[in-house]
Design a protein that fits this description.
It is a single chain. It is built from 14 helices and 18 strands. By secondary structure, it is of the alpha/beta class. Helix 11 packs across helix 12. The longest helix has 21 residues. The two termini are 31 Å apart.
Length: 423
Amino acid sequence: MGKLVLGCIADDFTGATDLANNLVRAGMRVVQAIGVPATPLDADVDAVVVALKSRTIAPAEAIAQSLDALRWLQAQGAQQIYFKYCSTFDSTAQGNIGPVTEALMEALKCDFTIATPAFPDNKRTVFKGYLFAGDVLLNESGMQNHPLTPMTDANLVRVLQAQCTRKVGLIDHTVVARGDAAITERIAQLKSEGISIAIVDAVSNDDLLRLGPAIAKMPLVTAGSGVAIGLPANFGLSPSSQASALPAASGLRAVVSGSCSLATNRQVLDFIQRGGAALAIDPLRIAAGVDVAAEALAWAAPLVGKQPVLVYSTAEAGAVKSVQGKLGVEEAGAMVERAIAAIARGLVDLGVRQLVVAGGETSGACVQALGIAQMQIGPQIDPGVPWCHARAEAAQGAGVHIALKSGNFGGDDFFTKAFTVLA
C-alpha cells in the first residue's frame, strides 16, 4: 500500500467532495470517509478526506470532532493536514473556522498557517483580503441571506480575527504575484510581527499554483478547495485520468435538493423548464405532521422509471425567512433535512442508483441516511462537484453513484448535465 501524504478534514460533506475533486483532478487518488473511521485505512490512496458535519454546530463540538479526525489521520501517517471550509467562508462570529484552525494549530504545534477560500474556477476570489463571489463582494452576493450563516462582511481578515485569539494578517496580491520566494519572505515577516494566520489573496489559478510550493512544508493548511490544485505537485504527483475512474453507472436517476441558494434556485427552475418531473415539499406541512416523505415517494414511484425526478424544498430568501419565523431557524433546517434524507433513502429503495443531492447540510443528512461510510471520487461535473461511487446500506450494499453539490456551485443546467456526464 502506498504512503498517505495528505490528510484532510472538511467541515461539511459537499465541501469534502469539492476538495477531493480538485485533488483527483491534480493527480491524487482519493477516498472520502464519512465521519472519522473506526478502523485503519485499507485503501491504496494518496489522500483521505474526512467529511464532518461541523460547520454550524457548537464550536466546542466542532473542535472535538476535528481533533478526532486529526488523530486518525496522523495514525495513518498523513504528512500534511488540510482543514477545508467553504469558498464563501461562511461562519458566525463565534466560529467555527477560527476556533477549529487554532485547535489544530495547537495540536500540531504549528506556529503559522494560511487561510484562503479562493476558488477562481467557481468565481470565488480574494483581493486585498476581501472575498468576491463573481463580480460582487460576498455580502452582496446573496450570502447575506444565508439561513444559518449569513455573511455581512467580505473582509476576511476582520471576519477571521473576530473568531481567533491569534493575530490574523494578509499576504496580498502584489506578494503572491511575485511567486513562492516572495510569499515565503512575507510569511517570515508576518511571523516576526507576531501574526500566526494569514489570509492570502488569489484571483486566478496561477496565484494558487504560486502559493503551492510556499506552503509545502507547512504542517497545517486551511483553505477552501482551490488551494488543493497546487499541492499534489509538492509530492511528485501530476494529473492522470486513472485517478478519477469509477465503475460503470446503472439504475434509476433522481435529484433531491434542500439548498436555498440563488444558484440552486436557478438549477431547479432550469430542470422544470426543460420539462423535468419535479415536486416541491412544504416545510410548514412537515411541521403540521404530514408525512411529506411518503407523499413524495408515492409521487415519484410511477415516474422515476421513465425519467429523472427532482424533489426539492428550495425557496427564495423571503419565503425561507417566513418559515424560519414560524418554526425557528434550526428546527426549520433540521426538519427539512430529515424529510429529504428519508426521501433519498426511499428513492434508493425504488431502484435509484444515480443520485444528485444539492445543499451541504442536506448532503450530510442524506449520506448518513443511506448508510454510506466512504466514497471513491470520480470525474468532475462542474467545478467543485464530482460524481462519487459508494456502497450503501440502503441499497443492501450495492454500489450507488452520488453527487453532493454545494448550494452555490454548478451551472444552471447542472441537474441535467450531471447525468449526461455520468453516461
